[in-house]
Structures are given as C-alpha cells and as structure tokens.
Amino acid sequence: MIRPILRYGADVLHQPAEPVRELTGEIAHLIGDMIDTMYAAPGVGLAAPQIGVPLRIFVVDLSIGREADGLIVMINPSFVEQGGMQLEEEGCLSIPDFNATVVRPSRVVVKGLDRGGAEYQREGTGLLARAFQHEMDHLDGTLFVDRLRGIKRDMIVRKIRKLTRAGKW
Ligand SMILES: [Zn+2]
User: Among this protein's residues, is 135 annotated catalytic?
Assistant: First the structure.
C-alpha cells in the first residue's frame, strides 16, 4: 500500500528512530508499504520515519524496481566502514523540489538485518554510498538540509516556512 510521505517539519522526521525489536507480520507489512511508496514516488530510497513510523528500517533501490536484485532492505542498520569523500547534488522525497550539494563519504559498508532477520552487509560506492548515508541520516532524525551550512541552508528553510504558512507544504 502506498502511504503519504511526510515532509520537512513533521516531528517524526526530526527525531531519532527506535530499533526494531521483533520481526512481526506488522513489520513485514510496513516494509511492503515502504517499497510500494518508494517505487510510486518514484525514489531511490525511503526510511520508515518518512511514512510516519519511528523505526530503524530503510529501503534503497537505485534501479527503482527495474532490476530484480536492485532492492536493498536494511533493518537496524549500522556503519561498518566509511571512507573517501564525494560532493554531489542531493534531494529528498520529504523535501520535494529542493536540492543542494552535500559532502559525503564516497564509500561505506552498512550492516543490518534483511527481511528474514538474517544479518548481512553491503558495500556502497558513489550513489549507493550516498543513498545509504542519506537513509541512515533519516533514522537519526537528520535531513540533508541539516548537513548544509550558511546561506544555502537558510534559504531552503526560509522557503519551506513560507510554503508552510501559505498552506502549500
Ligand atoms: Zn530523504
């Protein structure tokens, strides 16, 4: 089921999410909804807080469903390694129509549980490394705007406030 994606300003997006304690049917259902919502957006990643659930789960698929093995589901993820540096434009389904250049490590290794509850790890470089870090940030209540400094950040936040006041956000 496709769920509404919350936007910058919603409390759940600005707070750390809780670890998943047990892989219940409800969690399996939630993950299904996250995948449906990500593909429908369309987006290359989605974290549970973005659909209002404060749990440490994210889904990533750089192929947006075009490749059979493209989908990555991470439950209770953590970084094993991070290295290098990349500077690329970044956006977020919770901050539509805005993007900015964000500095990120260029390579990461993330470990977590898959949908079956088995622990595994995935290495990501380039865009995949960026997607992993962006989604991990969501689980800590951080949005890409929070990683910007100075004028660029102020400009985006001010525009969002203006849209919110106008009832257009
Ligand atoms: Zn995002």
Answer: yes
Q: State the average pLDDT for the chain.
A: 97
Distance (Å) of CA 155 to CA 6, 8, 55, 136:
21, 14, 30, 24
Distance 156 CA to ligand 1 centre (A): 15
Residue 129 CA to residue 132 CA, distance in Å, equals 5
pLDDT tens digits for 150-162?
A: 899 999 999 999 9
Confidence at 94, pLDDT banded by 50, 70, 90: very high
- The alpha carbon of 133 and the centre of ligand 1 are apart by a number of angstroms equal to 10
* Interval between CA 21 and ligand 1 midpoint (Å): 24
User: What is residue 112's predicted lDDT score, i.e. its pLDDT?
Assistant: 98
Q: What angle do CA 36, 64, 157 make, to 5 degrees?
A: 80
